Amino acid sequence: MALGDKSPTSALYAWTATLLTSYSTWYFALEESSNMSTGYGVTTNALVDEATGAGLTRADGVATLSIVTTSTTNDTARATATFTAASTTTVHGHAVCSTASTATYDVHSWYCYAAPVPLESGDTLTCTNDHEIMLGV
Hints:
three-stranded antiparallel sheet, 8 strands, 39% strand, disordered N terminus
């Protein structure tokens, strides 16, 4: 990647975001647990009550990946997926995972929603996650 007029640090952020979207597939998993304190298993790195209903599984949640700008040019890997429910359920959060199976130890990030999202058959839910690459504190 050519640095152009970017600082070496900004170029590194953009390069890392590009790597994340170029060499992996991400999947969204929906969380149906209403107990937000246990919606994510810290010791297992897995969701507690992952959605398994038709249209709502990880296999249905293959992410479309892109690069966007948050703080510096092209510093963010964006993942987006849309689910279409085939039954009635309530979703309380979602995770970004590295595999389509429900195996443990593959959650990149987990998000709980401010309020439950009720879904009926035919409803769609679009999930978007931005993974900004930046210097930590």
